[in-house]
Amino acid sequence: MKKTLMALGTMAMLGSTANAQKVAFEEYDLENGLHVVLHQDNSAPVVVTSVMYHVGAKDEQPNRTGFAHFFEHLLFEGTKNIARGDWFKIVTANGGNNNANTTDDRTYYYEVFPSNNLELAIWMESERLMHPVINQIGVDTQNEVVKEEKRLRIDNQPYGNLFKAVKQNMFKVHPYRWTTIGEMEHLDAATLEEFQAFNKKFYIPNNAVLVVAGQFETTQAKEWIAKYFGSIQKGTPVARQKFEEAPITAPISAKWEDPNVQIPMTVAAYRTPSMKTRDARVLDMISTYLSDGKSSKLYKKLVDDKKLALQVGAFNYSQEDYGTYFVYSLPMGEVTSETLLKEIDEEIEKLQTELISENDYQKLQNKFENNYVSSNASVEGIAENLATYYLLYGDINLINTEIEIYHSITREEIRDVAKKFLNSNQRLILNYEPAKEKAQK
């Protein structure tokens, strides 16, 4: 009875926390199709202006990979009214900072300014959309920048090609089979006209969402948005091809050699459903149960108790169309990959046949509540969440309600989803090994 009262008390606390943190927002469309979201937060004199475009690596051609990430860099080169090289100078001179990032599904740009510079931020993002200068000198400059980024972050990093090794084996027809950064020879071979065509196709107002979050006056913000974005012409709607992968019904084996590693990594990867599904959220909980923290099941068993692994982890890499569930481990000494897999599979089989304990279930709920609070703890986080939930999930109010989905997931669902997706005949086993002779390109 005492445990039941404690559990009820904890759930009541979680519910009150979620309600207290509700994110208020206003949304509307311009005539050109640009979706606008406004969120006021007067706790600090700061405003975030961001634009998320529905274009990522999956929108590229197989022989022209890396374009979406390349544009993340290229569109800082300058515009008709912002001289080449001046973008960052303008932001810094006005007390701001900015950045951008790209995934397989979308590209995101944002500025953080003192709230008295909102008009400047709105103008700059409208310039990026309406008047980008895409010329050969900019392409050549950013080509070298991207190559250096690839060398530093991927080619010369231990396990830097892990995602590439997994993706090319997990996906046969879907564009998720290549990496976000792409292949440098594809960028080298591309013409200026191809880059200009990519911009014209995807960087259009009706393929984007503009978010303004922070301290601002709503009427004034709407006037500036209409002034700077309203005259931009609507583009031809993007026609997206749907790719369907055949189910994995037999184990896939693969190997990758990396000159930057000394310890082999064993990876088990499973194809999982879209991040928009309930099952994807259950898989998030499963990965947290298995490997989040030193008290998690896999870490405690393989690292602490049996001392078979230096490191072990699991995570659900959720994306718009599909996801990939990773379980990885680094052996201790001469421990074999077969031994590690056997131990990992035992824990997964327990999940598939037994209910996790009430105590472990409550710990999961507490962790996801904490994650929810943290993700909306800053105006920058709220801005990106609003853009993401609108553009990729098609339900912007998930910023307030997604935590309720996690709260509603049962121990029985955790068991059933593990049984549905995490089976030995539905996976890739990748041996990521030190290079024996020369690096694989």
UniProtKB/TrEMBL annotation:
InterPro entries attached to this UniProt entry: Metalloenz_LuxS/M16, Pept_M16_N, Peptidase_M16, Peptidase_M16_C
Record keywords: Coiled coil, Hydrolase, Metalloprotease, Protease, Signal, Zinc
Family label: Belongs to the peptidase M16 family.
Lineage of producing organism: Bacteria, Pseudomonadati, Bacteroidota, Flavobacteriia, Flavobacteriales
Gene3D superfamilies on file: Metalloenzyme, LuxS/M16 peptidase-like
Domain Peptidase M16 C-terminal: 190-367
Tree of life domain: Bacteria
Protein name as it appears in the record: Pitrilysin family protein
Pfam families xref list: Peptidase_M16, Peptidase_M16_C
Entry-linked SUPFAM superfamilies: LuxS/MPP-like metallohydrolase
Domain Peptidase M16 N-terminal as annotated: residue spans: 36-179
Signal peptide range: 1-20
Coiled coil: 334-361
